[in-house]
Amino acid sequence: MSIVTVQLGQCGNQIGFEVFDTLFSDSHSSQGLCSKRENEAYRASCKERFFSEEENGVPIARAVLVDMEPKVINQTLSKAARSGRWKYGQHAYFCQKQGSGNNWAYGYSVHGPKHKESILDLIQKEVEKCDSLSGFFIIMSMAGGTGSGIGAFVTQNLQDQYSNSLKMNQIIWPYRTGEVIVQNYNSILTLSHLYRSSDALLVHENDAVHKICAKLMKIRQISFSDMNQVLAHQLGSVFQPTYSAEGSPHYRRNPLGIDWQVRPPLSGLPPLGKMPFNKELHFNTSIANLVILRGKDVQSADLDGFKDPALYTSWLKPVDAFNVWKTQRAFSKYEKSATLVSNSQFLVKPLDMIVGKAWNMFASKAYIHQYTKFGIEEEDFLDSFTLLEQVVASYCNL
Q: What percent of the chain has pLDDT over 70?
């Protein structure tokens, strides 16, 4: 089952390169914790999922690269080619930049429709290379212009054109101190549109990744390259194959096998959206947790703590909400590693914070004209606020 990756904007393209480089390096490393046969199967599975047929002996990433200008894409293509181990194909597209800055509306309402046919044609060519398409992995920023605006537009069109294939968006949550003055506007518009068209959102907060670099890796001068490598490691540990007891790989149609939906029972749950976020959350309640264990001693790992009913919403049994995948094949030269993918209340506070900041700006009509001149009406903002406030309230009610 193959995955086509769509890299959008400077953020998406730089992270995308690190992800593919991590996946390739891991799959071609010599691991002594599993048999040669298992290692070969692991490598073949990774190649099928993320790389297409080789060109002159060099695997080609199943990816489409999109940005408003050629600089970052050219750097990304060159960096992959210089490695001599893998490379990108010719599926890169440059939209003409015309002073749009970090305006979400320009990416969504102008660039997206203008270049829709060309971008979707490139994606279709990648899809046609797949024997069996599992879905799309879309890497993008949430706060900028290209990655967020065009990213939301492209995801929406992928949902229309490939409704039976999984659409998974990996989004970068902006620093709380602020990177772009309109980042909160861009963020709420991105999230509300992805909520309607994406099957799953994998969220990474810049502040959290920065803290990993500083406190765990002891990096003094932290660069975006350092942070992107951390992100690539986390994503690679999730997407690389694991195997069931029968020897068949996990990840069929859903590459993560986790229940992403907030599905209440037929009875017994308070009405969603009726409780505003005005109380302190003392415990992080989950809808679903997936633990992926790799390397040494995975079979003897004690995971009983994840079966505690206190971790989950009262209307969901832990047996239905918790999954664990194990493989003796180590990841990225680590003797043992564990990854947790969780659908929980973790993002309630940062989401509520972004919605609140965006609302304060909207109430004073700050920068609204930059969006309305490209076709985004005030009603679109109000729809986004309403939807995301409902999401916050729903997760608070778990």
A: 86
